[in-house]
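Record pair follows.
FIRST:
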Amino acid sequence: MSDDPEAKIATADALTLLLHNQHALAASMEEVIKWFSENGVGIVADNAMTAMETLDVNARAITDAITRLRQS
């Protein structure tokens, strides 16, 4: 990556927006998972929870990348 501070800021800003989208997707998935669980579709809810775990792991990685960019 370029050492250009403006490029780093732009990249961090773009990653921040993607992270916000990721949080919004996770929140909507939580609502769907809750509905699945309440309506007897437990296996689907379990599969969706697995996907949520992936979102969480990736959100942490994105957050770390944003932090590194903003500190450099």
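SECOND:
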Amino acid sequence: MFLKRKSAVTAMIVLFICVAVYLNWSFTQGVGIEDSVDVDSGKILGEATLIDNEEKIEETKDDYFENARLEKQKARDSAISTLKETTMNDKVTTQERESATKGIENLANGAVVETQIETLVKAKGFTDCVTLINEAGVNVIVKVTDAGLSEADASKIKDIVVSEAKVKPSQIKIIEIK
């Protein structure tokens, strides 16, 4: 009975972490050049919505970054809440409690690194940026001008991510939003 309960709690912790990672992954998979806003035509690619007004186009682009941050925070809060419940449960073992505590620390450290990357990328002259860290690497979603991202700009972003997230350049994916 005790072993089943221990296995169930561990499985729940792993499940919630996997859900958070999946939400992070699925959120970034749908974002790319095909989903960027084409300012010249006023059409949002990947959707059947036409926008006639330049102001509405700007709102849509700005909402994307706000929504991305909100969804990222919701997923993180959900995972942390579950892990906190595990740490406060009297029926879990010390090892499970330590594992949950380490999970909370990892999520918190990831949030700090994401914020540092976003702040530094904005300091390099980019209007907006959202960073998502997962097991596969780091996704950096950057708001760019119509000219797009130059090699020098991409290099600046990669340098920031390598130094802050301690990942290899091959683990960095930069996604442009126009």
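COMMENT: The chain has one domain: 2-177.
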